[in-house]
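*** Query protein ***
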Amino acid sequence: MDTQQIIAIVVVAVIAIALIIAGVLADRARKKRIETAEQAREDREAAAKEAADTAIVAQQAERSGQSESEPEPPAATPEPAATSTPTPAPASSAASESAPESATSRMTRLKARLANSANPFGKALFNILAKDHLSEADWEDVEDTLLMADVGADASEQLVDELRNDARITGTHDPAQVREALRSKLLAMVGTDTDRRLNADKPEAHKPSVIIMVGVNGTGKTTTAGKLARLFVADGKSVMLGAADTFRAAAADQLATWGAKVNVPVVRSDKDGADPASVAFEASQRAKNENADVLIIDTAGRLQNKANLMDELGKIRRVTEKNLPVDEVLLVLDATTGQNGMEQAKVFAQAIGITGVVLSKLDGSAKGGIVISVQKELGVPVKLVGLGEGPDDLAPFDPEGFVDGILA
């Protein structure tokens, strides 16, 4: 082997080592950017939670000051005593509670709320993509923005690759074309052809149509069950509620309060800690006997361990199906928890076959990317979104209205 061959081999080896080192450094830089984005998102979530806790304390203080003039929540009663008579309320309040807002009006309000809010997600993307020339740092900023909006690492990388290959962005500086390109990509990832109807609204739905609500405690699951009952009442359906969350003492009272507001009977146990499956069985039997259109069963959301969760939810479903088939299992996920709630969501998805997701507390667009990541991870559509704390702040999810709202 002559000197030139040795030099050539050394050069090739040096180049190979340099490429390996460059790859390692690039991978570390990417991981660092993701960690930085995740830390920023967690800091923002902590600040939002602190603000929410402060607001809750203020609301509780206000309510305590009005407690003498407000009716007491329904007390625990035996199952046979479940009633369709609402809790007495002032005439003006009763009138408003008897006419829940329509689904169409709710979606219009969602779009307006998103358009009028600070939209860091959509606006940040548009501001970057509308530049005259996009550098590698700009594309990294795009990916960071998507990560901070809870789009998820895999989906963010996919969306960046698609945007980089779109001639409307790389070949023009027209803001209108850039916006349309971004809109079409987001719509494609959110999904416009997905059937997001509740199964109870489909022609082939059983009657009564049974919906089981699942999710971790604190996500707004029981509140969402009550709001969903109002949504069905607005559509002219007769509804019954089953309080199978017997683990949390106030859950049945909370559900009974929602039922009283819209003349919806609630089946509950006469004691705390009762077998939730027995409540579900009684509720399904009554719904069947009274020929209700929809039965909504609220369940406990504790996550002691995966085995206990699967056993309890499985039992609730089995005993319910002795009377009625279960048409829908809705997972309630708190949008503000972002990627931190995805692992818990996966546990519920494995424990009981979920058919759709309800994203609660989706009050703004900063966390809008969770819609993309939750559907990608769980393989089921987002069917409903919570808009706020009001009784009618639950609406069917509309992909086009949502994307237009965050890009407004």
Observations:
- The chain has two domains: 103-190, 199-398.
- The beta strands are 209-214, 239-244, 266-267, 294-299, 326-334, 356-360, 382-386, 394-396.
